[in-house]
Structure formats: structure tokens, C-alpha cells
Amino acid sequence: MKKQFIDKLSPGDKVDDLFVLSEKTMSQKKNGDNYLNFTFSDKTGDIKGVAWDNIDQIAAAAKSGDFVRVKGGISDYKGGLQLTVRQIDFCTLESVDPADFLPVTKYDPDKMFEQLKRTVEQYVTDKYLKELIQAFWDDKDFVEKFKRAPAAKKMHHAYIGGLLEHTLSMTVLVQKIAEHYKRTLNGINMSLLLTGTIFHDIGKIREFEYNYKIDYSDEGRLVSHIVIGCGIVDEKIRQVQDFPKQTEMLLKHLIVSHHGSKEFGSPEVPRTIEAVLLNHIDNIDAKMNGLREFIEKEAPDESWTSYNYMMGCHLYKGIKE
Amino acid sequence: MKKQFIDKLSPGDKVDDLFVLSEKTMSQKKNGDNYLNFTFSDKTGDIKGVAWDNIDQIAAAAKSGDFVRVKGGISDYKGGLQLTVRQIDFCTLESVDPADFLPVTKYDPDKMFEQLKRTVEQYVTDKYLKELIQAFWDDKDFVEKFKRAPAAKKMHHAYIGGLLEHTLSMTVLVQKIAEHYKRTLNGINMSLLLTGTIFHDIGKIREFEYNYKIDYSDEGRLVSHIVIGCGIVDEKIRQVQDFPKQTEMLLKHLIVSHHGSKEFGSPEVPRTIEAVLLNHIDNIDAKMNGLREFIEKEAPDESWTSYNYMMGCHLYKGIKE
Amino acid sequence: MKKQFIDKLSPGDKVDDLFVLSEKTMSQKKNGDNYLNFTFSDKTGDIKGVAWDNIDQIAAAAKSGDFVRVKGGISDYKGGLQLTVRQIDFCTLESVDPADFLPVTKYDPDKMFEQLKRTVEQYVTDKYLKELIQAFWDDKDFVEKFKRAPAAKKMHHAYIGGLLEHTLSMTVLVQKIAEHYKRTLNGINMSLLLTGTIFHDIGKIREFEYNYKIDYSDEGRLVSHIVIGCGIVDEKIRQVQDFPKQTEMLLKHLIVSHHGSKEFGSPEVPRTIEAVLLNHIDNIDAKMNGLREFIEKEAPDESWTSYNYMMGCHLYKGIKE
Amino acid sequence: MKKQFIDKLSPGDKVDDLFVLSEKTMSQKKNGDNYLNFTFSDKTGDIKGVAWDNIDQIAAAAKSGDFVRVKGGISDYKGGLQLTVRQIDFCTLESVDPADFLPVTKYDPDKMFEQLKRTVEQYVTDKYLKELIQAFWDDKDFVEKFKRAPAAKKMHHAYIGGLLEHTLSMTVLVQKIAEHYKRTLNGINMSLLLTGTIFHDIGKIREFEYNYKIDYSDEGRLVSHIVIGCGIVDEKIRQVQDFPKQTEMLLKHLIVSHHGSKEFGSPEVPRTIEAVLLNHIDNIDAKMNGLREFIEKEAPDESWTSYNYMMGCHLYKGIKE
Amino acid sequence: MKKQFIDKLSPGDKVDDLFVLSEKTMSQKKNGDNYLNFTFSDKTGDIKGVAWDNIDQIAAAAKSGDFVRVKGGISDYKGGLQLTVRQIDFCTLESVDPADFLPVTKYDPDKMFEQLKRTVEQYVTDKYLKELIQAFWDDKDFVEKFKRAPAAKKMHHAYIGGLLEHTLSMTVLVQKIAEHYKRTLNGINMSLLLTGTIFHDIGKIREFEYNYKIDYSDEGRLVSHIVIGCGIVDEKIRQVQDFPKQTEMLLKHLIVSHHGSKEFGSPEVPRTIEAVLLNHIDNIDAKMNGLREFIEKEAPDESWTSYNYMMGCHLYKGIKE
Amino acid sequence: MKKQFIDKLSPGDKVDDLFVLSEKTMSQKKNGDNYLNFTFSDKTGDIKGVAWDNIDQIAAAAKSGDFVRVKGGISDYKGGLQLTVRQIDFCTLESVDPADFLPVTKYDPDKMFEQLKRTVEQYVTDKYLKELIQAFWDDKDFVEKFKRAPAAKKMHHAYIGGLLEHTLSMTVLVQKIAEHYKRTLNGINMSLLLTGTIFHDIGKIREFEYNYKIDYSDEGRLVSHIVIGCGIVDEKIRQVQDFPKQTEMLLKHLIVSHHGSKEFGSPEVPRTIEAVLLNHIDNIDAKMNGLREFIEKEAPDESWTSYNYMMGCHLYKGIKE
User: Fold this and answer.
1) Do chains E and A touch (3 or more CB pairs under 8 A)?
2) F267-289 pLDDT per residue, tens
3) Which residue from E minimizes the CA distance to D271?
4) Using one digit for the tens of pLDDT, what is the confidence trace for E245-258?
5) Model pTM score
6) Shortest Cα distance from A238 to chain C (angstroms)?
7) Which residues of D202-219 are buried (b: 16+ CB within 10 A; e: fewer)?
8) C102-294 — its CATH code?
9) Which CATH class, in words, describes the domain spanning E6-98?
């Protein structure tokens, strides 16, 4: 179990722990001797490394992308830290805990999932949608992925458990907002809207790879989470007897249209009240989470943040109550 | 007091009541005689009219845009109704009740205003913002306009009292949504956000004319409600001693940026969390109200609505719980 | 069997045949008597109609959208023709031949389908894709719909059999164009490209209704033919043992990306050579067919056509060899 | 008073003068000893610096952004110059002349202001607008800022006095262009157009900070110069008795609409002839000045300039009379 | 010579004069008799016409688009005027004066052309450009077309002589504006800029047809005035010995880039100071003329105009000095 | 004749051959001595160089952009190669073979040109177009440039002979595609379409410089290949007696519109069937060649390519038959 994390290392520390070998390059000294430059990573950041001796042996031990055990020491170099490497050993995937290398949600996935289940029990009254959701809950493999998947590679909820955290947060908003408009809009279909909320991004369990790093999968880049998600829902609907055609259509519409417009990747725009609401609630939750993640990483004593790509501007942090 | 409304007239009715004379044109019969065509309006709709006799006298009585008392009778014509006019008399503005001619909110403006005041008392804790709001509440002329102004000419909340209804609805959403994110975003400034919500559209009390019809004012078209609104807030801030410069700046930023992007008329994009939230909440409330108004006017037994310009598509109404 | 088609009627003709009653409105004469106005349609066009007598009986016989048998006569009216109606009788859907009311391809669907099958046999060499295609051919219900479906509501191939005609034409182009680039691009996957071509628009068999008129289905408007199509392919892939995951992904990518960009409704842009080619070939075939249909309807002796929405301009027809 | 400017330094010079300490970083030699790297700036450019001795003392003397007195010498390093530092002393803001550190207009602000006043006297005949302008001229604090403010952070007139230079240049163009069209357009309101020209960018006196460097102020980024400018005009209008409502509205319209379209930050598009003209004249003057500044900095003997962001292209300089 | 113009006709007038027969349709009375409906036009407007007798003879006399001599009388009909036709005779093109049917500039083309020539003499000092312009002036056919061509089909200067009027107005602006910047921009090439101004739209002499109506020519729609214009200049440059290649390139650049950006039809953006200026001056002159023409046609006593497509808004006319 | 190409050099090689001196900079060692850094180039790539001795003499021998003969040796440096320079001698343009320094087509230009001529003979039947093409073939200077010109600076066919290769490939596609649609579109004008294909990019023979490097010419940037191309065709049309005006117009239309829309630089959109086809075929051939060139340079064993600017995405290379 990994104990030494990069953001806690100081000059003078001895190092003997697991890292990802992110980069490795052979360089030459003036006298013609070779030496090695490295970048090592874990979930807390990156550190530069160098090896002066045993070059060939160390170089042969592992390649970029491998997990390695590193022995060496920390020193200052050009205003930063440097890991001088004495020995590198290759580690199998089985021997590492991915959680040491991947950012994770701050919340307990199991508790989040239980809260989501309670929300379903309370608000989803439609017989068929209840059965459909139950079919998902009964699928152990699905539940495991649903608890682990990130909601993005960057921008917002870009960490293990991010999809569940985003989904749960949206169901809370759905209750609040839909309730507010229920009186005047007589006829927001809560069963449908909540089910759509829960599964709107479900294709992301396959759009991303998130075993040892978070990145797009081939399927994700080629087919898109919207189309993958409709396929996942299709598969489960086949397990529910007499699932009504219209409900299927409206549920898929929520998945298909939740990006709000074609230029954002939705093949159809929202055409039901539920779809319009879902698109807006998704947007708010993504923005609020993305801004929180962004601002947490900013220097605390500046009035303005660095440029934020999601909002397209610098953000002002000058006043808080 | 007007008793006969256009949407209740039937063939055979005798008419003797007030209408707006929306259109008046002189036409010629084959035999060369003149006759008059009219459109009359009230808050419930329009009706075509015709006069065959006393042409010159009737024509001289009033011009397009005037309020008139009309005497005549209703008959069928080409599948619709027609008002055959015997007499028209001009009416002064003082003699009519504008409420008979303008669409109004379904809610009681006084009750909405009281609810808004209670929300302020409960959530706005900043000393200066409380004083600022009180300065607005103490301005009788302002309060009267604030209770009457529409939020738009068409699209959403396009009726007397619409601005207050929209504003109140948004404050309810602000409480719900801001509360949801308060825990994680430690530092949503509720005093600021609520004050900004209350006054984000305040320029609309001068952007529109809404005495006898709802239309843009000259000032509205030339200066825009965003700039008018900042001026109104400026004026009241001068009445609050030592109002902090930074609070003023952040409050105006909420007004300035609430359309969310330049192409929608905001000179600056949202650059604070409060401004991002306000933009989204404004958007949701406009959409939900606009959709309700739109769908209420649609034929109830069709699966699809006519084309909706706000959403850019036909909407599906096929299923409701 | 219908014998009298609207584009062949002349003044003086007696009429006794089937039409769609497209519009029906009650009007009033000056003397207060009612009369009826109609529009009747078949696959060759529209004609106005009028009924002066037996009004109530005729009005009760059928409603807009019904198939009816009409008895009456043709006369000139305001430079066009008018059908004076004596009698209207309702007809059940079963008693009409939809082909009388729907535009159809000029080619024999069975021959087109045979040609398509031969192309597959010749060029699709991949074992799994062959099996997949065979699974489609073995599905009688599918084949029937595939032969009948239109490729659009308007713009191009907007007629019964249009989807098959468009698909077949594209496979011919694929052979020609892919062959041209095969030498230099060593590695256009013909099996994949042809299979993708055949099924790129397959969702259109459910995106449209085309029994008695061509229009979008509810599913079409809510889910889009791209997502429907992936679902149809999914279903058939389950019938092929060990269908390779990568082939499935690449085949779906061809469907998903064939509109070429997000703003045209593709959730992903083309990311393989085959997908880039398919997008262009689809585009050319749609344009060429759309232009042909458009120009055929234009006045033959004008240099310029009316405005063409597909191309965004007037087209010049001034010279042909 | 500063005498040594960066663009005039040569190898071998002794240095003892004021600079902005733009950057300061601690580095390490191979032997583990620390040394310091600097960037020093003044209005003529930047120079790299290095300190090998007295490191801790020098490092503690000042931080990035401070004004400092530097003692040392100039040498060649890697094809450029380097300032080897012996001593650094902190300087208070009061002890420096900002003009040594900020780019300034080539023209005399007082003379420009006098010319502007004469133009007003000659062309502004409207009683209320004359009074309004006089109220501005009587405000000493305003006049001082108006003479100093830049018109931009970069792009065009990005220097002290730039706003006045830009404004004056535009008033000259207004006279020329408006006169040309006056005959045909009978009714260009010269009083209004000139007053609008003078104050169209007036918000920039607060949109920027320009005491020691030119940058956006918080208010500038949050509220925008258009809204700030309307507020400044509002304030002065209150000092003019009976200022006509319509004139106020039209003057603000010139400020509000002068960017020409919403996507460029104007909440309303130009809706009067004067506003259309002002937008174009602003545009021309910004382009002409921006191009001049840009081309002056380019290598004189190349046919093409580097990429120009304002115009979106490389510019051709190949021929001049 | 035509004496009776449509805008001067009154009820009761006898008519015997030339008109364009813009429309002609055969209609049927209730009793089955045919009658004829017409629209007649001249440069002052349109009038409806009708013929009850001699139908066949009148119908055969001329077709839509022909010039005709009409005999008949004027009467009121449905609030407008109607020309009851007794006789129609075909007229050859030779027998009509096009000036009776086409809108024309208010200025004297010969005087405008003389003023343009004087400007050239005064400001164009480059030997080759002088020769080039002289080659144009020496081409009688060119000069005649240059004096007659319109600058547009609608929008601005859409009348006979409009191109010359627009060109001349621009040369005046060029003198004023270029002079203003000459001091600071040392090196505006006046010879080049003025020559480019004179010929920037020269392709319009072939882009339009303007013998009997103003419309696009086939060449205009297929090749565009920018490309036509470069060809015209090419042709004349061949007549000037040793015309410098660089001057030719820069002159064509002014023609090629004068629309300012690709989406407005310029294959290249402006890349010289002269080209930037020309684009702006063209824009101002088009806007000012277009607005004048537009406002002249508007009702004089309304504060707001109807929708203006060129500016994309309603315009405010409320105040003029 | 150059024998040593950069992509074949290895550590230990002696060098004595021609290169382009792409970059030359003087640097300083710690001890204050100067040394020289270089970049040398040929058609196969770049290599870094350094000179420690004879600095002044070597520095004076040539400047950036010159062709030089370099004597020295190759060694490893920082994981790459380095050319240690002993001597540099300037070479005149005449003494080098540009083909050693410019990328070239893989095909034989003479054979490609012969194939193009045969295609013309077979398919171009129009008398005047045949004569026009012959006039081009008879122009030795033209043919030489046509065989050498590149089709782009980067993106696609960006090498000597690229224009001819692109043009020939398109004529093959034209035959295939036009033939396919000829039956249904009765009236694709093959003579016109092929001639247009051959000359659609002909302006590129002057839009680029391609003697010693491929770059835009001044004329190319200022006038654009579309306008240059029309001028070239104009010139040759003058050599064909009685060339029909309409054919000229339609041929130029193919050149003018072949980019498909204004924002891509075509002053007019395609308005004939031939122009629509040409635009699509140009697009396909550019994409296919651009993708080939791009993928050839990518690492062979990765599933995904680096970012491709032409397609706006990463491309998937995972499967090939």
C-alpha cells in the first residue's frame, strides 16, 4: 500500500514507493555519458527524476505508462524538487491500488448509491420505469461501473465516482425544481424525468477508461456516450415485460436530447418539458461542480482566477460572505 | 365597467360595450358605395367588424388605437363571427379600465409582493443590501410599477404583473438551488444573489409601456433594460450611506451579465458564481413559463404542438402522468 | 382501383373516384346560406372543391385526412380547376391502394434489392459482416420496410422506395470512388464501408411513417434515425455469434458520424477514412437526387430556377449539351 | 528622475537607476548554491538580470511588481544583454514618475484638450448639451482622468492619453464625414453626434487602471465601460436643469450602441443615423491607429508583417509612395 | 413621350399612355364569362387594371413584361385605384424611353463624371495609374455604362446612375479621411487608393441589367462583380505600356478585398492600409445612402420606421435639429 | 549532386554536401567565447548543427535561407543528432537542384500530363473548349508550371507536382461519378465539367512560389487563386475565335464557385449541377490525399493519430483489412 505521495515529498526524503512512470528519456552529458530523465506521477501530482548510474539496467526495467517501485532520494533542483533514482522495479497492475493513482470523489459511493435508490423509491411511481430501474440495480457489474465511472475527462466531475455524484446531485435538483413548477405546469412526469436523470449519462460507463487513468475509450470516441447510453437502456428494457413503446421513446429522448442542441452533440433538441428541464439541470450541475473544482486549485489570495475554459473568462473571487 | 368580452360573444348577441378600435379601413362595394371594415380588440382577443350605413359619421368618430363604445350585433361570417356596427363613440383613456384590455397575471400582485418581502427579510443579511432594498420598497412609485410591469412583449411572462411573478418565482428557485450547492461551494453570497435576482430585470419597468397595451418604450429600444436597470440601482444606492463600492460593483455585475453572453445582449459574461447561477435560473424560469403559456394555447388533442420559436422546434405533448 | 388522377382532369369531366380529403371548411354566402370548400389530393397533386347543396350530409360524411369517394364535375374557376361535389362517401384504409396517394421511386424495388444483394456478395468479404447482412436479408419484415421506406420527407428521395434507391446508388459510388483511392490509401476496408453504406440510414425505416402519407413518426422526431439505426444494428448483431467488438464499434461509427458534423446531427465527427468517404458519398447522392427532383418540377423554358433551399440559391439551367 | 532606459543600454554600461522588478526567481547552481534571475522593465522594454552574490539580501529587498533602484553592470549573454545585479533597493510609488514606466501619447494632452474644447464651441449648438459638456469640463478630477486614460489595454491607443487622442481624432472625422452627408441626409444632429463622440468611451476612465501599468480594473471587467459610461453621463445630467429626456435617451443610445452589434458588447444595435455614423467612425479610427502602432513595431525591410490579430491576417507593406 | 405617371393618376382620369404590363391573368365571373386582371407599372409605381370586354383581343395584344400603350379610365376600387382597360397595343423597345420606367439618380451624370475626372487630375499622381484611368475615360462604351449602371438591385444606390453617384461620394470621403490620417500614417498611397475607389465596383456595369429594369445579369449571378471587375481592369492594364506588376497586384487587391471579409464575398480580406480604408468608406457610403433612401419612403410622422433589413432593426426618427 | 540526405545520417558520418541554412544564431559560452548554432534542412528533414572554431569565418560565409556546402561530422546529442561544422561555403541558386530541397509527387509528371491529355481527347467534345485546352497545351511556359506547381502550402498535395496530381485524380473521379448520374440527370455537360476540373485551381501556378521552397506569393495572398485563375483563363479565351460568351461564363463559374461557399472564399456559391459536382469532387480528393499524407507520417503502432486540423479530430487507425 502506497504511503509516499508526491505532494508531501520534501528535500532530503528517502523514497521507496509506487509511482506511474509517465515519461522516460535518455540524454547525454557533455562527456558523452548517458543519463536518464523521468517524470513520475500519482494522484497528487508529478515530479521530475534523474538517474546517473546503472543506466542500462534502470532503463530496461520499465517503459512509459508502467507502474514502478522507485528507490532514491529527493533534492532541490532549479527551484523545484528532483527524485534522484537508484533503482526501478516493474510492478504488475494487480499489485497496485488504482485509487492511489486516480482522483476520486470526496463522497462515499455506497452512501450516494443508497440515497439515489431511496429517491427512486419515493418519486418513481410508474410501474414499468420502477421495473426498469430495478433491472439495472440487479445488475452487479453495472452497479460497480456506475459507482466508479467519472463524468468527464476534465471540466467537471472528472474523477472516480464523478458520474454517480453528478447524477445524485441532479436528482436532488430535479425534486426541488420540478416541484416548484409542478403546480403551474400540471403534468411534469416525475417518474420519467427522474429515470431520465439517472440514466442520461449512463453511456459514460463505457465512454471512458478509468482503471488506471481517466481517458476516452475507443468506443467512446467512435460512438459517443449518447448512442452507447441508448443501447444500454435498450438492453435492460428487453428484460421488462410489456415495457410501453411510448415510455421507451420518451426515456430515450431524454438521453438523446440532454446536451440541448445539435452543435453540442445531441442528435435531437429537447422537445418535451422534461427534456428541457433535464438539459438545464445538467448544465447547472456541471457548471457548479466545474467551478468548484477550478476555484479550489486557484491561488487563494488573488482577486481573479486564471482563464477558465468552461466559462470563457477569468472569474472574480473578490468577495465571499 | 366592461361586461362583454370578445371570447364570449355568440351569433345573435346585441353588443353595447367598450373595445379598442385596432383597425379601420374604408372599402367600396361594386355599386361604388363605401363601407367600413374594423378590427376590435380586448384582452380576450380580436373580432372583425363591418358598417354599412352612417359611414361618414362612424368613420369620423374615432381612429385606430382609440378606445370606443360600440353598438351593434353579432353574426356568423365565413366560419367566424362579425360585429355589424350601428354606432361608435370615442372614449377617453380615463373612462376605461386598462385591465379590461391587457392580459394580467393569474396571481395577486400584493400577495406576491408580500412573499417577496418576506424572502428578503429571511435571507438578505447584508446590512447595506437590506438598506438598499428598503429604499426601493419605500418608493411608492417604484413599487406600483414593479407590481404592474410585464417581463416581456411576448415569449414569457408577457402580461401585467409578469415581472413580479417571474422575479418571485426566481427567488424561490434561488433558495432551493443555492442551498443545494451551498455546502460544497462554501461561499455563495445569498444576500447578493437574492438582491441581484430581485433587480436583475428592474429596467423592464421602463423598457416597456404597459398602460393600455404592452410594447417597447422608446427608452427601452434605445437604451436596453440592462443599462436602464443599472441606472435605477445607481439612483437608489446614492440613498444608502457608505454603500460599499465592491458590493455595488458585484450587484451591477449580476444585472449586466444575466443574459449570459454578449450575443444575447449582456455587455459582460458572468464572472462570479452568483452571476452564473442567476443566468441559469433566469433561463429556466423563462422557459418553464414560456412553455406553459404556449402549451395552454395549443389544441389539447394533438400529440405535437405548432412550431415554438423559443425552443426552435415542435413540442411533444403525448404523455402526461 | 383508382383511375382518375388529378393532373389529368379537365373542365367538363365527370368525377367518380377516390381522393384524400385534405381540407374541409364551412363558409357562408351573403344570403347567409352555408356552403363547403374542399381540397382533394392524390399522388399527382391537389384540386380545390366546392359543394352548394346537401351541405350537412356531405359535411358529416368524412373529416380532413380521410380517404373518400367523390362524385361531381370539373369546371374552370379563376384560372384553375374546381371540383363541384355532389356526394362524398367515406372509405376505409383497407379499400384504398396507398400507391395511388404516395409518390414512388421510378425503379423496381425488387430489382434494386437484387442488385444490392449482388454487390454485397461481390465486395463484402468479412465473415462477420456477411453474416450480419444475411441476418437482415432473412428478416422478411425488415426487407419489406427497407424496400418501401422513403429517404426523406422532402429535399431528396422523398418517395416510397427512396431509401433503397439512395442506398443502392451510394453503393455504386462507393465501388467507384473507393477503388480509385484503394491503390494510394492501401487499406480502405471495403467490407466495412459497404456494410456501413447499406445501413447508414437504416433508422429511417422507423423515422418515417409511409403507409398513407410520408411524415415523421413520433419516434423519428424524438429519437432520430441515427440512434434508431444503431439500435436496429445492435439487435441483428446479437444474432451473429462472436461478432467482433471492434467491427461493431466501427460499423456504428459509420452510422453515428455520417452527417459529417455535430451541427448536422451527428454526435461524433467522422474519424476513420471509411467514415469520411461515407459522409461525402451520402452528401453527393443526396444533392444529385435532390437537384434532379427539383429541376424536373421547374418551368422548362426559364434560365433560372426558383429558389432552391437545399443549395441556398437560384440555379442556372441555361445550357445543356 | 530616471535617465537610463532599457532600449539604450550597451555592454559595459554601469547601471544605477529605477526599474520595475517584473519577475524574480531563485535558481540553483550545480554546486547547490543559489542565484537569482530577474526581469527588469521600463516603458522602453525588458532586460534579463542575474545576481550571484548577496543573494538573500537582494532577494528580500523587493518582490515582483515593485519599483526598485538597481545597481550593477551590463554584459552580453546568449546574443542578448544581461544586467548583473550588485544591489537592489525598494522604491515607494511616490518616488517614481509613472511616465517613465507607461507608454504615452506622442501629442500634448493639454493642446489636444484645448482643440477638443474649441470643436465643441464651434459645433455644439444645443443649449443643454453645451451645459452638459461644460459640467464635465468644470470637473477637475474628470478632466485629469480624461487626459490620462488609455483607450485600450492593447490593440489601439493603448497608452496614457490614448482615450483623448482617439476622441479628438474622431471629432475631426465627424466634422468631415457628417458635413459630407449633411446635404443629402438633411438632419444629422451635429450637437448630439459630437457630444456622443466625446463621451462614447468615457467609461474607460474607470474601466482601466493606469497609474503604474495599464490593465483592466475590477469594475471594468465586471461592469464594462459601456455601462460605466452611461452612469458617468447620468451623474452629470443631474447637474443640468431641465435636461430633456429625449436628448438624454439619444445620447445614451450613442454610448450603448457604439460597438455596433451585440456580439461586440453593445446591448443595443445603432438605431439612429448618428449612432450608425459613430460606430463606423470609431471603427475606422481604432483600425487606423492600431495599424500604425502595429506597423511601427514591425521589421522595416520585410514585405509582410507578422500576424495581426486585429485584422486577422498578415499585412502587406511592400509599396509606399 | 410618356406624360401620365401612375403616382399622379386620380379617379375619373382618362388614360392613354405607355406602361409596362407587369402581370396579366385570365379570370372567370360567376356566370362563366372571362375577364382580365392586370398590373401596370412605370418608374413611379404600380396600378391594378381590369378588362371586361374585348377580352380575347386584348389578351392577345401583349404578354407580361412587354411595354404597352393602354387606353382606359381610372376609378376607385377597394380603397385604391383601378384602371379599366378598353384597349392595349404592343410597343417596341425602341419606341419607349427607359428613363420613364427606371428610377434614376437625382444628380446630373455628366456633372458627376466631370467632378470625378477633376479629382483624378488633382490627386492621382502615379504615372501608370493616370494612364490606366485615361484608358478607361477614352473608352466611350465604358463611360456610357459607367454613367448609367446602378450600384445595387435594392438596399442602396439602386437606380440608374447609382454606381457613379456612389463612386463619386466615396472619392470625396477618401480625400477627407485619407488626408486626416496621412500625417500619422505617413504613406497612404493616394494614387492607388483613389484609383481603387473609382474601380472597386466596376464589375457592376456587367453584374446588372439596367436597360428596362434593374436586375442581376446571368454573368453577375455566375461570376460576381468582384471577378468581373478584375477582368475589366486586366483588359485596360494591357493597354498601358510597362504597367508595374506590383501596382496591378495592389489595385486588384483593392477590388478583391473591398467587401472586407470572406463571408461577404471577398476572396481575400484587406491586407493593406488602403484596402482597410476602402472597405470602411464603401461601408459608410452604402449605409448613409441606403438609410436616406429608406427613410424618405417612410411615413413622416412616426417615431419609428418599419423594419430595416440593411441595419437589422427599426430605426428611430424622433428628433432632428 | 546531393548524396547525403538528413534522414539517412548516423553518428560517426563525415558530412560534405549541400543543405539549406535555415537558421544561424551566435551564442556565448560561460567563458565568454562565442559559438554558432545552426539548423540545416533538405527535403527529408532538419538537423541541428554547432561550430566551435573559426566562428567569424563560418558566420560570414552565408546567411539564413542560403544554400550552403557544409563540411563536418555527425554525433549524438541529447538523444538526437548534431552536425559539428568545420566549414561552410555559400552556393549559388544555379548550383543546386531544387528537387533535393522540395518535396515532390511520387508520380511522373510527364506521364500524369499525358494521361490528362488523353482524358481530354476522349471526353471533351465541345469544339471551343477543345480549342481552349489546346491553347493551354501549346503554351510551353504554362505546361511547365502546371507540371510543377503544388496544390497547397500544407494540408493536401503540398508538394511539387501536387496540382497536377490533384487535377488528374479529380478528372478520374469526374468520369466515374458523372457517368453514374448521367442517366438520371440527363444533361451533365461533360465537356464543361472536365474543362472546369482541369482549370479550377489553375491560379495556383501563381498563388505559390515553388522554386526553392513552397510558400504563398505576394500575388497569391493579395489576389487569391480564384481571381488569378479567372484571369489566366480570360487570357487564353482571347486566343480562341468566337468563344461563346455563355460557355466562358459557365467555365468561370466553375472556378469562382469551387470552394462551395463564401466563407471558404468563393465569391459565388455553385449554381449549376456541374459546379455542385466539382465542389464535392474537389473536397473528396483533397480529404483523401490529405489523410494519406497525414497518416503516413504518424507512428504506425498507435490506434489513434495525433490531432488532425483538416478533419478537426484525432483519427482512428485501429483496423485495416
Assistant:
1) no
2) 999 999 999 999 999 999 999 99
3) E315
4) 999 999 999 999 99
5) 0.88
6) 11
7) bbbbbbbbbeeebeebbb
8) 1.10.3210
9) mainly beta
